[in-house]
Amino acid sequence: MTDRIAHHYAVREQHLSNETELVQELGAALSANAILTDSDVVESYRRDWSMDPDAGRPLAVVRARTEDDVRAVMRFASAHRIPVVPRGAGSSVIGGSTAVDGAITLSVEHLDDLVIDPETMTAVVGPGVINAELSTAAAERGMFYPPNPTSSDFCSIGGNVATDSGGPNGCKYGSTADYVVNLRVVLADGSVAEFGGPMPKATTGLPLMKLFIGAEGTLGVITRITLRLLPQPAEHRTVAAFFATREAAFDACADIAKAMRPSEIAVMDRPALDVAEQHLHMGLDDDTAAVLFGYSDADTGAAGEAALMEKICRRHGADDVFVTDDPSEGAMISRPREGVFDALEGRRALIVEDFAVPPGQISDLITAAYRIGDEMGQQILTYAYPVDGVVHPIILFDPADGESAGRAFGTRSRLLAAVEEMGGGLAAEYGIGADKRAAVEKTLDDAAKTLQRRTKAVFDPLGILNPRALVTTASHD
Length: 477
Prior knowledge:
Blueprint: H1 2-28, E1 35-36, H2 39-44, E2 60-63, H3 67-80, E3 84-87, E4 104-107, E5 114-117, E6 122-125, H4 131-140, E7 143-144, H5 157-163, H6 170-173, E8 180-186, E9 192-196, H7 209-212, E10 221-228, E11 230-231, E12 237-243, H8 246-259, E13 264-269, H9 270-280, E14 290-296, H10 302-315, E15 320-324, H11 327-333, H12 335-344, E16 349-352, E17 355-356, H13 362-376, E18 380-385, E19 390-397, H14 402-421, H15 437-443, H16 446-459
């Protein structure tokens, strides 16, 4: 027994020695202070917002200061066959940047240069630029960057590209992919490739750039992004319609979508409104089952769009409809949308889900979500972007309570199964990551799976880039 224990510790010491040598070799190739090995710091990079209980412990964390740092990491990782997990702001809720045991977590948060060109109406940004910072910088120059994820205050543009993020205004403006003009990417072997052109209409052969948008860091590490901007809309209208039934609110949304494309349209139902009420004390009417929030930024046409939204909502039995062109009043009317997250911040852990179903099935999915929550003894809230068929169930739990966390993740699994049974999409705006990879894999036919794996192998033949996310290998079947 003594010999076995001694052997165990000898092997462990040799392993630690090898790790130390690897870290020293990597650090020597990087900018000063780019590599982080302090245990507390490394711990803070293990998980993203998905709170993945299976997060690994990386060999090291690298906060790249330059593209050369990214190239050095990839050359080192290829030489030693060490996995690399690219990471932006860590705002993924689907395990898109969850650490892997023995891997390198490569943060690009400090690649945050931002240059706006008013002549070409483009922005050239590093992947670490925060979405809201770009929007603000564009607005200061009379321009508009449309993609606006709910997490825009803290999510990064690199992460938005990696997951092809959308947002509340996606029904009118589309997703991140619609604004990417050019990408500069460090490939798995450390070489650099540039895709796209200087302007949206530039033609550069096969549309390889599109492969990297939504690839979740599995094909390369994005180091520079060129985005097209739009003119800043001059006029806005805000509409809030209060309904006695959730179904009436969704029916109104369906008719609005047939008549126009508002800049945003969203529905909050009673459970979510109740949470917002606890924080905002709005004095919400007890008979209100759902609120439809509609927005128009159609400049001189905004008044007409808002009037038509009001007319449609009243036709579907809205108890009250408020319309305003005053920005302050609009912000006040919209407070419940932000109030939900303000009320929950710091108090409970959240699993924020992301599904896509045909608009006519949204109410059915929400009904199923509440039924599952009741059966599991688990609180669920929902909000939806009906025109896009997007539903975001929010599952609340106490991370310090193992039973609570277990119920929450069990509830999530049942929701995934319910969406699959309805023929819906298991991912809409947030990506697939590690959390949904197996579930999404089951919905793909064999030809699609084979093509995904072959594409992955072309760009990453060693399979070292974000190995837990998005694409499985045949060995995981």
